[in-house]
Amino acid sequence: ADKAQVQFWHAMGGELGTIVDTFAADYSAGSETCQINAVYKGNYTENMTAAIAAFRAGEQPHVVQVFEVGTATMMAAEDKGAVYPVYKLMQDAGVDFDQSAYLPAVVSYYTDTDNNLLSLPFNSSTPVMWYNKTALDAAGVAVPTTWDEVEEAARALKANGVEKPFSMGWQSWTQIENYSAWHNIPMASEENGFASLKTEFTFNNDAVVNHIQRIADMGKEGLFGYGGRRGDSRGMFVNGETALWINSSAYYGGFKSDIKDFEFGQTMLPLDTAVADAPQNSIIGGATLWVLNGHKSDEYKCVAEFFQYLSQPEQQAFWHQNTGYVPITTAAYELSKEQGFYKTDPGTDTAIKELSLNTPTPNSKGIRFGNFVQARDIINEELEAVWAGDKTAREAMDAAVERGNALLRKFEDANS
Ligand SMILES: O=P(O)(O)OC[C@H](O)CO
To answer: Any keyword Transport (predicted)?
Structure first.
C-alpha cells in the first residue's frame, strides 16, 4: 500500500540539514505506513515566510520548523486555527508523550498559559563565547570571563596580529536579548511579553546602551569587526581573523569538521561587572517544530510517531553531540554523560550550564514578542548604524525601542 506522505519544511543547512534528512529517512525506512519528506526551505525567516504564504494558498506543509523569534506569531496563528498544537496532536494520535521529560528552560518557552506544549522542542541552543585557544595562548592571555577582560584580551590579540579580535552573530539575540537575561534585567515590560500583549520594549536602558557603546568603541579601536547578521561572521572565526566570537552553541558540529589549524573552545558568556555581580542564566534560541492544520488524520498520526521518534534519547543525544544544540530531554543529557561525551569533548556542556545556572526569573525565562521577526530587522538596522559610526548607542537603542513598540502595538491590535 502507498505510504501516507508528510511534508516537513526545515531551515537546517549544511551538516545540520544532513542529520535532519537522515532522521526523516531512517524513521520512514522503519515505518510501513509513513513517509516523511524533509525539505530545506532556506534560513529561518525564509522558511517561516514560505510556510505562512503556503498556508494562505492552502498548500501548507504538515510540519514547519520555526525559530524561537516566531513563537508569538505562531501562537497567534494557533488562536486563529492555523496550528495543530502538539499536546493535542499526541493525544488524538494516542501516542505517549511526556512533557516533563524536557528541560524546564525549553518547555516554558513553548507552552501556553495552561502549560500545554504547542510545538515540539527539537533544536534548542543558547549563545556561548567561542574562542581560539591557539591565538589566546600566543597572545599570552587567558580565556576572558568578564567584558573588561574581553576588551583586554582583544587588545593583546590585536597587538599579536589578530585582525578583528572580537565579533558576534545573531546580534539582537546575543547582545540584547541574552545580555539582558544574563544580567537579570528586563528588555521589555510585562515579563518580557509573557504576561500580556501590552508589553513595551525597555532595552534602551543604561546597561544595554553602555554595553552596545562599549562594542562600538572597541570597533573604533580595531578590536571589534562586524561581520553581518545571523551566522554570516562565522567565517571570520574559522579563518582566524576573529579569536573571540559570541554566537550559538550550535556551531559546534561545523567547527569540529572545519577548524583544522587551531585549537578552539567554548565558554560561558562574559559578565558585565558594572551591571551584575554574577550571571543569572541565558535563554534559548534555535527552533521548534510546529504542526499546521488542514491535513488528513492518518498523516497526522505519522507526524505524531515521527515526533516520538525524534524525542527518543538516542536521536536527541546524537543530535546534541553532533551539532552543539542542547540536549533538550533529561534522558538525552544523562545518556550523553554515560557515553562520556563531556569528557571526550570538553566544553560541550557550556550551553546547558548557562541555561540552568539559576532558576529563571521573569527577566531570564525567555521573551515573547509579536512581530519580533520584523522587530529584529529593526534592531539589526539600528545596530548596524552604530557599528558604521552613524549613530551613538543611545540614539540607536532609543530609535529601535520606538520603532519596535509600534510593531508591538500593531500586533496587540490585531490579536486582542
Ligand atoms: O543558530 P541557532 O539555530 O542556534 O539559532 C540562533 C537564534 O536563536 C535564532 O534566532
So the answer is: yes
Q: How many C-beta neighbours within 10 Å does residue 196 have? A: 12
Q: What is the pLDDT of residues 35-50, one digit of tens each?
A: 999 999 999 999 999 9
ipTM above 0.90, yes or no: yes
Beta strands across the sheet bearing 264-267: 166-168, 244-248, 127-132, 264-267
Ligand 1 centroid, distance to 411 Cα (angstroms): 23
Give the single-character DSSP code of 35. Answer: E
Lining ligand 1 with CB less than 6 A are 67-69, 123, 125, 170, 173, 248, 250, 285-286
Domains and CATH numbers, the chain: 4-125+285-344 (3.40.190.10), 127-282+370-415 (3.40.190.10)
Q: Give the atom of ligand 1 at the shortest distance from the alpha carbon of 68.
A: 10
Q: What is the pTM of this model?
A: 0.96
Contact (Cβ atoms closer than 8 angstroms) between residue 175 and residue 215:
yes
Residue 82's SS3 state is coil
